[in-house]
């Protein structure tokens, strides 16, 4: 199990670190998107530099996973990005190109399960009562 955790953490970290850097530096060629709602959405997000912000979050979270520091924070940063990746591919492209998003989501879910104890305080119904001193 120890090796599975390391492999999942490194793989997820590499995916987001490399593709986050690509979002900033554009070193991997991107095929042109056919005219569609997905293309319009992507153009708007890139024109207004929203994707630069997304890329920075990906780089930071990927780096945290790679160096094995603040892993629960990295997983928390990546969760909404993965939701957006999946929704983009499901709703705007009809499922085309969803495989990397699914693989990343499975790695994320596995790591969330492994680090679940770190997230238990987020699910406290009344956190003030839990921290009150008698």
How would you describe the overall organization of this protein?
The structure is a single chain. The chain has one domain (about 1-30, about 40-115). With about 130 residues, the chain is mostly helical. The radius of gyration is 17 Å and the shape is globular. The chain is built from 7 helices and no strands.
- Major sheet description: none
How big a fraction of the residues is strand? under 5%
DSSP summary: helix tally: 7
Ranges where pLDDT stays below 50 over 5 or more residues in a row are none
Rg estimate, integer Å: 17 Å
Q: Terminal Cα separation, in Å?
A: 41 Å
Q: Summarize the amount of helix as a percent range.
A: over 70%
What's the overall geometry? globular
Helix/strand order? HHHHHHH
* Derived structural class: mainly alpha
Oligomer designation: single chain
Number of strands: 0
What is the typical, i.e. mean, pLDDT? 92
Number of domains: 1
Question: What's the topology here?
Answer:
Blueprint: H1 2-25, H2 37-47, H3 50-67, H4 71-92, H5 99-114, H6 116-119, H7 127-131
Tags for this model:
mainly alpha; 134 residues; 0% strand
In short:
This protein has 134 residues and is an all-alpha fold. It has helices at residues 2-25, 37-47, 50-67, 71-92, 99-114, 116-119, 127-131.
């Amino acid at each position: 199990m120890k090796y599975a955790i390391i492999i999942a953490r490194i793989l997820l970290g590499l995916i987001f670190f490399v593709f986050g850097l690509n979002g900033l530096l554009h070193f991997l060629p991107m095929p042109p998107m056919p005219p569609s709602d997905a293309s319009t959405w992507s153009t708007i997000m890139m024109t207004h530099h929203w994707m630069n912000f997304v890329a920075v979050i990906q780089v930071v979270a990927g780096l945290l996973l790679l160096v094995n520091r603040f892993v629960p924070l990295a997983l928390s940063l990546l969760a909404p990005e993965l939701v957006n990746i999946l929704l983009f591919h499901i709703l705007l492209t009809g499922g085309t190109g969803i495989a990397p998003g699914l693989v990343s989501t499975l790695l994320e879910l596995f790591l969330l399960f492994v680090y679940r104890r770190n997230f238990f305080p987020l699910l406290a119904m009344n956190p003030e009562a839990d921290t009150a001193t008698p």
